[in-house]
Write a structure and sequence with these properties.
Metal Transport, Frataxin, Chain A, three-stranded antiparallel sheet, two-stranded antiparallel ribbon
Length: 86
């Protein structure tokens, strides 16, 4: 099991949202096929075929817990984790 798979499991478990590194969350979204654009401190992720747009920001080196929850909800709703065989 690779590092990204372990991170995806950590995000999907929902037990440690406040300890997800911002750069790791961005890396997961890019791996899942999201396009990123940056406007100031906002990293905006979108993907063709999805109606949701994910707008995430960092606090220090971490992601905001409620934004990790939003990412988890989108991954589960569209069953995007299959690219990792999770």
């Amino acid at each position: 099991m690779g590092q990204l798979e372990k991170l995806l499991i950590k995000i999907l478990s929902g037990t440690n949202d406040k300890n997800i590194e911002f750069n790791d969350l961005c890396k997961i979204l890019k791996t899942l096929g999201f396009n990123e654009r940056i406007k100031g401190s906002h990293h905006i992720f979108s993907k063709a075929g999805l109606e949701e747009i994910l707008n995430i920001q960092q606090v220090g080196s971490k992601s905001k817990p409620y934004q990790v929850k939003q990412v988890r909800q989108v991954i589960l709703k569209y069953k995007l984790g299959g690219e990792f065989n999770v």
